Amino acid sequence: DGGITQSPKYLFRKEGQNVTLSCEQNLNHDAMYWYRQDPGQGLRLIYYSQIVNDFQKGDIAEGYSVSREKKESFPLTVTSAQKNPTAFYLCASSIPGNYEQYFGPGTRLTVT
Amino acid sequence: GDSVTQMEGPVTLSEEAFLTINCTYTATGYPSLFWYVQYPGEGLQLLLKATKADDKGSNKGFEATYRKETTSFHLEKGSVQVSDSAVYFCALMDTGRRALTFGSGTRLQVQP
């Protein structure tokens, strides 16, 4: 079955540690996105990539980094510079020219 | 910049009641509009979409019409079920970034 996988579903880290969230898709989509969701709020765009080896900052990129070395993968690193990293992180992908985005199941990150 | 405003929730209805969730937007040009649904602990699923003015998106008994004159995309369903209980997000596509701008979400609770 085609889809987007994010792992793990729950992640716990100590403050000051970097952590990498996985996002893999087998939909053959060129574009991939990372969003952050906080309780009672909508999703906010962290980073996006329209093509392999290229990515752009979204609205809240500070404290995060990404890479796009393969079409299928778009990992997100939450660095120690991110002041409030505890949140629900969602990855999405889409076909160029087709604006419908497909979402993964999300990773809930808790930093204490 | 682009923005989406949704009615605040939670919206609590009895089964078989009529549902309206209001959504208005501010954007340059005529963006594509979407409704996504999020069930507890899960990612987002596309519910319906409309890509131009006067288009009506529909799916699973839900409908929304793209109203250019009022910059609105209100979600409606004639008879809700307990299984419709979820958080509903209105979103528009930023044609430049090809990324979604979301409203804050509206929680719907349907009681038997």
How would you sum up this structure, described in words?
The complex is a heterodimer of chains A (112) and B (112). With 112 residues, chain A is mainly beta. Chain A is 0% helix and 51% strand. Chain A contains no helices and eleven strands. Chain A has strands at residues 4-7, 10-13, 19-25, 31-37, 43-51, 54-57, 64-66, 76-78, 87-94, 101-103, 107-111. Chain B has strands at 3-6, 11-14, 19-21, 23-26, 33-38, 44-50, 56-59, 62-65, 75-77, 86-94, 99-102, 106-111. Chain B is globular. The model of chain B has no long low-confidence stretch (mean pLDDT 93). At the A-B interface, β4, β5, β9 and β10 of A face β6 and β11 of B.
Mass-distribution shape of chain B? globular
Strand count of chain B:
12
Order of helices and strands of chain A: EEEEEEEEEEE
Largest sheet of chain A: 7 strands, mixed
Give the helix level of chain B as a range of percent. under 10%
Distance between the termini of chain B: 41 Å
Secondary-structure content class of chain A: mainly beta
Terminal Cα separation of chain A, in Å? 36 Å
Mean pLDDT of chain A: 92
Low-confidence stretches of chain A: none
How many strand units of chain A? Answer: 11
Number of helices of chain B: 0
Structural shape of chain A: globular
List keywords for this structure.
heterodimer; A: 112 residues; mainly beta; seven-stranded mixed β-sheet; four-stranded antiparallel β-sheet; 11 strands; 0% helix; 51% strand; B: 112 residues; six-stranded mixed β-sheet; globular
